Amino acid sequence: MTGLMLEGILLTIITAATPLLFASIGELVTERSGVLNLGVEGMMAMGAVIGFAVAHSTGNIALGVVGAILAGMAMAALFGVVTLIFVANQVASGLALTLFGLGLSGLIGDAFVGVPGAGLARVSIPGLSDLPVVGLLFRLDPLTYLAVAITIAVSWFLFRMRGGLVLRAVGDSHVSAHALGYSVIRVRFMAVLFGGACSGLAGAYLSLVYTPQWTQAMTAGRGWIALALVVFGTWLPGRVAIGALLFGGVSILQLHAQALGVGVPSQFLSALPYLTTVIVLVIISRNRALVRANTPAALGQSFVPDR
Amino acid sequence: MVKARGKQAMKKILATATAIVALAVGIGSANAADKLKACWMYVGPHNDGGYSEGHDVGRQMVQKELGDKVETSYVESIAEGPDAERALERLARSGCEIIFSTSFGFMDPTIKVAAKFPKVKFEHATGFKTAPNVGTYNARFYEGRYIAGQIAAKQSKSGVAGYIVSFPIPEVVMGINSFMLGAQSINPDFKLKIVWVNSWFDPAKEADAAKALFDQGADIITQHTDSPAPLQIAQERGLHGFGQAHNMYDFAPKAQYTAIIDTWGPYYVKRVNAVLDGTWKAEQIWDGLKDGILHMADYTNLPDDVVASAKDTQAKIEAGTLHPFKGPIFKQDGTEVIGEGKTLDDGTLLSMNWYVKGIDDKLPQ
Lengths: 307, 365
Fold this sequence. Notes:
The structure holds 2 protein chains of 2 kinds.
Chain A lengths: L2 H30 L7 H19 L2 H25 L4 H20 L32 H19 L1 H11 L1 H6 L4 H27 L11 H11 L4 H24 L5 H21 L1 H7 L13
Helix pairs in contact in A: 1-5, 1-8, 1-9, 1-10, 2-3, 2-4, 2-8, 2-9, 3-4, 3-8, 5-6, 6-8, 9-10, 9-11, 10-11
Chain B lengths: L1 H33 L1 E6 L9 H16 L3 E6 L6 H12 L4 E4 L5 H10 L4 E5 L8 E6 L1 H15 L4 E6 L4 H17 L4 E6 L6 H13 L4 E4 L5 H9 L2 E6 L10 E7 L2 H12 L7 E4 L6 E3 L7 H16 L9 E2 L5 E3 L7 H5 L15
Parallel strand pairs in B: 1-2, 1-3, 3-4, 4-5, 5-11, 6-7, 6-8, 8-9, 9-10
Antiparallel strand pairs in B: 10-12, 13-14
Protein name (chain B): Basic membrane protein A
InterPro entries (chain B): ABC-Purine-Binding, PnrA-like
Keywords (chain B): Signal
């Protein structure tokens, strides 16, 4: 295996992990506030289509990314209104949001099917990108840098800042947080919006960077993987990032294993990313204390303030 | 008492529901009396830019050419399996008189549903099972793949092509073998790397597969999946490939050599017309390049001599003087499938589950 090939593989793995990282970090924040939003796939699809549509119409990819963020937030706002203000069931509303997003994105995107998009170029950071081995990490596309920055920022916010403490308090016991005078609904709404923005980014990454094109259902289940990764990472940003890389890594490596012709049935290789995720999930769940410490205790529970 | 009331209420609701359904069916059949209702079922989105879109272009042609004599409709993104059965049944109940089920995996559901609706006519693409009211139709895509294989062998510097595939069904295996036989006719030592993505349509995964194949030394890519993503990767890397089912030139104007374009329209018009004038009967149709059911996209990004030889091969296939599966053909282990001078018959082709010699990959069973 040559160095160039290794570099190619690493680049592909990072590209595969980035949309998963965006979506799962957003969902992590949402879930830390106690809200389970199963609509990630739908929000991603909307981000993908709006991102592509705006970028294509204006010729400006940055505007497309902004459009995708807003589209994800609009979808999340809808979910927030339904579940937080009208106190609808979160699981059912989230599933509905996915179906709605997939359908609506198909409708909006009809005019953009079969239209090639201009991809986002990679940005080399001068000086650092020429370093051996690690130089690769400084020759990525801007959105990947953004994903890493968001992950670090979220981690800092959740565990080093007062706002993060409030958010976690709301997610662990909305009754206590309410009694202390925090607006549970407002905190949750903001967390839901943040989740939507990140899902929108994940979608934009697919339609603007990964495969610069729009096709219906191009998210192909990645929203669901992101949801699983949040649990996989026991609601900790660093672990979620590792999970995204692990899942991306195994799915890319299995393709390489096939191309090399290792003689293992391809169906088994294709199942490997899922299998690995499930196994690691089981291993992590064995450490009960760790899981209990980080699982938002009020996850999925509706909050109705009693006046 | 409460229970009895509940039952009565239930009966009332049922009666109302039945009345509404009866009304709806009545309206449906009144409409159907003036127009023939022709329906399509797709495995992907109708505008996937690939296989399903090819069928939808055909449907639109039927609507355009037969105008107010027909009413066409489609259902899209139907998963192969139990979902397909439900969708077909819904179509049959909704008054469709002819239903085109356009994916290989719809085969058993089509046969099953057709037995329940003997008056509805079914046509199943790329399969091999028939019934009195189920015909099959297919295009000899392998003819195009043979030409692609020859081009690949002439153009490749590394002598290695990458092949992205969906599921190990005979149609796909036939395509791989034909591509390889075409390549071997130019370069007997040509190598093929094969990656299964277990999906007909997942742009990101197809792109990943293309990257993996390029990283491992392939410099030409071909695919039996439906999105233009692999070609986009080829363009990004300054390498080349072939479009699938649809002309993908716009997605990769510097990368596409040619594309195998499905051209179902004329066939659909012919078959719907047959229903209209009452001459339809279940047939097994397998047309090729010469019948116009598939076309080769313009040969681009190629030197003149390669274009000329590709056109020459195409002309020979159309004239019937060249058959991609002409013997001698050997399996991977060296056993002879067919000897010198003979060609494989359609039955063998349609049930193909072995690789030809020279492919070092294990076929998933």
